[in-house]
């Protein structure tokens, strides 16, 4: 700073601007690569239909049809995980874990079908190693051997959830039974960090 100040003499603001620029350039150069983002949409997904969207790093977004009791599928479960797998990388960093109405589109856990039609934002782990770390933290906490409180656990899990997902239902049609969704139209965006 002293060299720059001497060079610009009576123009200290200019020296400050140049110094700030040089610092920001060096910080930007040190940042990790930008995540790769994927936008997706579906004009109409009928009850009982499955949807998958490939994501970077061999992952995929999934809407899995769910049935309640002996009825045909009337709900979807939201997942992100490795392609062609049922492993879910989202649930572990998105509590609550046991009853998870935020991961279900449709009537569940005291939430009506209409109430489940809201925009959601999620985080997810992106590698098997991160999933393993998150699972160990979760299992240790449940056994009483892990982090000393829930806030610490949530903070640690949050740091492992490096992927992001925004999911928005744009339009829907409820059936004659108000707890049955006939179809949904949706869009979303998922960003996955570079390896």
Task: Characterise the protein shown here.
- It is a single chain.
- The chain is of the alpha+beta class.
- It has two domains: 1-31; 36-192, no CATH class.
- Helix content is 27%, strand content 32%.
- The chain contains four helices and eight strands.
- The radius of gyration is 23 Å and the shape is globular.
- Mean pLDDT is 83; it is low at 1-29.
Topology:
Elements: H1 2-8, H2 12-30, E1 36-46, E2 51-55, E3 59-66, E4 75-82, E5 104-105, E6 120-124, H3 128-143, H4 150-160, E7 163-174, E8 181-192
Antiparallel strand pairs: 1-8, 2-3, 3-4, 4-5, 6-7, 7-8
Portion of residues in beta strands equals 25-35%
Count of separate structural domains: 2
Largest sheet: 4 strands, antiparallel
Query: Helix segment count?
Result: 4
> Helix/strand-derived class?
alpha+beta
Instruction: Note poorly predicted spans.
Output: 1-29
Average of per-residue pLDDT values? 83
Could you state the order of secondary-structure elements as H and E? HHEEEEEEHHEE
List how many beta strands DSSP finds: 8
Straight-line N-to-C gap:
36 Å
Q: What's the short version?
A:
This protein has helices at about 1-10, 10-30, 130-145, 150-160; strands at about 35-45, 50-55, 60-65, 75-80, 105, 120-125, 165-175, 180-190.
């Amino acid at each position: 700073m002293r060299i720059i100040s001497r060079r610009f003499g009576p123009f200290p603001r200019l020296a400050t601007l140049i110094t700030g620029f040089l610092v920001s350039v060096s910080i930007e150069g040190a940042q990790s690569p930008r995540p790769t983002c994927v936008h997706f949409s579906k004009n109409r997904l009928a009850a009982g239909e499955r949807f998958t969207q490939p994501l970077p790093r061999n992952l995929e977004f999934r809407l899995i049809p769910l049935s309640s009791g002996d009825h045909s599928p009337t709900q979807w479960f939201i997942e992100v995980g490795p392609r062609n797998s049922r492993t879910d990388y989202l649930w572990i960093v998105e509590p609550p874990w046991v009853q998870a109405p935020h991961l279900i589109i449709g009537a569940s856990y005291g939430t009506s079908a209409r109430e489940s039609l809201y925009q959601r934002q999620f985080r997810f782990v992106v590698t098997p190693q991160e999933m393993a770390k998150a699972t160990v933290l979760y299992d240790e906490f449940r056994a009483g051997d892990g982090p000393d409180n829930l806030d610490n656990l949530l903070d640690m899990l949050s740091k492992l959830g490096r992927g992001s997902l925004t999911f928005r239902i744009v339009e829907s049609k409820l059936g004659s039974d108000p707890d049955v969704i006939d179809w949904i139209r949706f869009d979303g965006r998922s960003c996955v960090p570079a390896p």
